[in-house]
From TrEMBL:
ATP binds at G11, Y12, S13, S14, C15, G16, K17, S18, T19. This is Cytidylate kinase. InterPro entries: Cytidylate_kin (IPR003136), Cytidylate_kinase_dom (IPR011994), P-loop_NTPase (IPR027417). Its EC number is 2.7.4.25. The gene is cmk.
Amino acid sequence: MKKNLVIAIDGYSSCGKSTLAKALAKKLGFIYVDSGAMYRAVTLYFLRNKIDIADDTKVVDALKHIELNFHSRDYESHITLNGEEVSDEIRLMPVSENVSEVSAHKIVRHEMVKQQQRMGKSKNIVMDGRDIGTTVFPDAPVKFFMTADPKIRAERRFKELESKGNNETTLEEVFENLAHRDYADTTRKESPLVRADDAVILDNTDLTQEEQLAFAMERVEPFLVH
């Protein structure tokens, strides 16, 4: 197998990027890195500490006090913020409503990209996010760009929130949040969400999780040594 093989998965919110990434990591014995969780954890820290995203000096200082770590249980990625498990809290609406603005900040992105690139230097990894195949690992040999019908994406996200006990958010609010994030992600100046020229498009609107994994494995297979 190619040394330090990186599989990059980019795409819109609630397209099942993490579901596919975790399934691939489990199938291949790779490490799964959820880059979106990193931005969400930073956003959570900023919200808790009332960091003004427009104040670069405060942003730089805040980043010095943020330590993020991943740990895995059954290929489920868990993230800690300064030693505190925050995997569930970062998925709630307050973070979702602010993460696009935080992740668009040049200073935040540069710091997170540096951390992500360090993770891929010595290990076989599957990483999902918005700019993995374009900015973080532009030379990754395997790249996917995921998309799905916006209504289907909103329904998936709504069900996920319900499963976590959040019954206060409506389906319409989730749909509007995703539309806002799509716009913010694709129009930001710093590493916008775009498909890399060599990325394979994976539209999973009508695919099961098993079907999308099979689709991806077929394209990863040539890079594996038997």
